[in-house]
Amino acid sequence: MNLKKTSLALLMLSTISAAQASALNDARKVESAMNHASASSQQKIDKSAEAAFSMTAEIEQLQEEVANLRVYRDHMANLVASQAEEVKSLDDQIAGIKETRQGVVPLMYQMLAGLKETVANDKPIRQEQRLARIEKLEKMMVQADISDAEKYRRILEAYQIEMDYGTKMGIYQGQIALDNDQIDADLLYLGRVSFVARSLDGTQFWAWNDNTAKWQPLANDYSKDINKAFAIAEKKAAPSLLTLPVSVNVETN
Q1: What angle do CA 230, 162, 193 make, to 5 degrees?
Q2: What Pfam families does UniProt report for this protein, alphabetically (predicted)?
Q3: What is the pLDDT of residues 166-222, one digit of tens each?
Q4: What are phi and psi of 143, to 5 degrees?
Q5: Contacts of 164 (CB under 8 A, 6+ apart)
Q6: Residues contacting residue 250 through CB under 8 Å, at least 6 positions apart
Q7: Between 20 and 30 A from 91 (CA), which of 141, 160, 229, 243?
């Protein structure tokens, strides 16, 4: 009887232990499933968070790009406005240039006429060279390949050369007219104050007289100063005071 009770008790304990083990195993499975589900959910949450962060970053980047585009748009608008003003300014300048050109061309012809008259009425200092320069300028005026600005510059250059004749000393060889006879001579000019000639052998001297527009012979008293003036012009002597005949009023033998 006692043996049966003991066996029954062991059987019951064994059954209870098996049931408990089965329940524990089920609980562990449930726990594992819950942990797996929790991990899966966490992964989804993490992925969603990463996606949200990435989207936020993209939105911020897009907002920055939009702001930059607005700045660039405003810049381009200002640039276009500035270019429009520049175009208008250029149009106004072109219109002004056309008006100026219409006034400059007649002015250049007037300047050439004045230059020609000056040379014709002036002392015959390098006269052939000066007349040739004016003739060249007159031909230049009808050349289409030379701009008006360049034409004007060359005319001003010719005026400057004419001005230099009135302030500088110079010498050259040329011919002078004496009683319908042309002779070779050394010529010296001191501005437009004095214009003298010396025979090539250095024995005769003449001075230009503006009143008669002729060469007049000079007394030998002038020979020393005239020869010295030639030496100074040739840089063979140092500058010094000279006594030269004034071309508008000279003394003769």
Answers
A1: 45
A2: DUF3450
A3: 889 999 999 999 988 899 999 999 998 999 999 999 999 999 999 999 999 998 889
A4: -90, 120
A5: none
A6: 207, 209, 216, 218
A7: 141
